[in-house]
């Protein structure tokens, strides 16, 4: 297991996470931190691909696009807790206070849900109304990064070979063309920024468009799964796989980590990739990922014993609890 250490600007803490076990230690910082620009990876990327969090942060920091990082939750999931509206509002008020206190002017966010949630919360508060929130794919495009076509084809070919007896697209020994059907997430429908960034990063010759894309995109199944309808979620996930095959794809590529996870474990027509896997040539083992995320970083109180260690809050459901995050 390897430890990854992050200095969280907004929480004012030093966070050490082991990967893949996600054993976590949180210690209070010596004093408040400030940063004009932040990378905000979001809970899904932290839980499923911690090495990519570090890789992306290092890339952005070296390019002088960010000065710090925060592992905090955007707060969206709190809406699904008891008295969720009030709990989320209280968290967002504290989040805005910390963003203002840290002098943050610009946030690069990896998750479509986080971009929507952060923009909504920050714009409503006069202390943070001027803070810009930028989708990560557009930032990477602006820096000149592109997915290498040969890397993408190699990763997909290896996945299809390893899963030849599992994926329907490989049924009866079929060798489908190496192409990725683009899946767009629900929270990006209004602006299409993640959709634009994803297509700009992908090699044009490897990307195909499904029947439902961009503003007409359809859910991976997360929303109905969050509402407790696992059967309907499975049906929606399978439909996204079928659309990928109909479009001539032998895989799905997405800009949302949560979509990538659910489509990987809830449909078996084609393999699924998050674009960062292709960009960094690092495959996430989706089927070994926990069904419920273990870590959820919120603002918390110092340790009761007065020590430096601070508890972190992981809002994984209790055994038998069918509630799931709206991914």
Automatic annotation (TrEMBL):
Region (Disordered) residue spans: 304-327
Pfam families xref list: CCG
Listed InterPro entries: Cys_rich_dom (IPR004017)
Domain Cysteine-rich per the UniProt entry, residue ranges: 38-119, 182-263
Lineage top rank: taxon: Bacteria
One GO molecular-function entry: oxidoreductase activity
Name of this protein: Cysteine-rich domain-containing protein
């Amino acid at each position: 297991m390897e430890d990854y250490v992050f200095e969280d600007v907004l929480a004012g803490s030093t966070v050490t996470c082991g990967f893949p076990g996600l054993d976590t230690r949180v210690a209070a910082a010596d004093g408040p931190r400030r940063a004009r620009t932040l990378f905000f990876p979001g809970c899904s990327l932290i839980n499923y691909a911690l090495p990519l969090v570090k890789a992306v942060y290092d890339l952005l920091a070296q390019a002088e696009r960010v000065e710090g990082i925060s592992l905090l939750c955007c707060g969206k999931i709190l809406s699904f807790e008891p008295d969720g509206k009030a709990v989320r509002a209280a968290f967002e008020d504290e989040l805005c206070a910390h963003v203002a206190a840290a002098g943050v002017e610009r946030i690069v966010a990896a998750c479509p849900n986080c971009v929507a949630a952060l923009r909504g919360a920050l714009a409503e508060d006069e202390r943070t109304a001027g803070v810009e929130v930028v989708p990560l794919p557009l930032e990477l495009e602006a820096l000149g990064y592109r997915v290498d076509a040969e890397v993408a084809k190699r990763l997909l070919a290896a996945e299809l070979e390893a899963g030849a007896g599992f994926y329907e697209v490989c049924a009866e020994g079929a060798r489908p063309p190496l192409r990725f059907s683009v899946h767009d997430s629900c929270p990006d429908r209004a602006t299409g920024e993640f959709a634009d960034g994803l297509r700009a990063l992908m090699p044009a010759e490897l990307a195909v468009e499904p029947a439902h894309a961009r503003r007409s995109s359809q859910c991976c199944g997360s929303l109905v799964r969050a509402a407790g309808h696992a059967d309907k979620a499975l049906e929606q996930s399978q439909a996204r796989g079928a659309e990928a095959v109909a479009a001539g794809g032998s895989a799905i590529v997405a800009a949302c980590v949560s979509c990538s996870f659910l489509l990987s474990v809830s449909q078996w027509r084609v393999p699924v990739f998050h674009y960062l896997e292709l960009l960094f040539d690092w495959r996430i083992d989706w089927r070994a990922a926990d069904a419920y995320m273990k870590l959820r970083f919120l603002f918390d109180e110092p340790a009761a014993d007065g020590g430096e260690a601070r508890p972190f809050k992981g809002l994984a459901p209790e055994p038998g609890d069918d509630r799931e995050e709206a991914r």
